[in-house]
Amino acid sequence: MLSPFIHGGIFLYDNSYILAACQQRETYLSILKDLTIMDDIFMRNVLKDSACTEYILKVIMDQDNLKLKDQILQADYKNLQGRSSILDCIALDNFGRKYNIEFQNADSGASLKRARYHGSLVDANTLETGQVPNELPDTYIIFITTNDTLGFNLPICHINRTFAETGQSCPDQLHIIYVNSSVQDDTALGRLMHDLHCPNSQDMYSKILARRVKELKETQEGVDTMCDKLNELIAEERNEGEKRGILHTQKETAKNLQHMGMALEQISLALNVSVQMIQEWVSADHIPAN
Question: Which residues, other chains included, contact 16 with Cβ-Cβ below 8 Å and sequence gap of 6+?
Answer without folding.
Answer: none
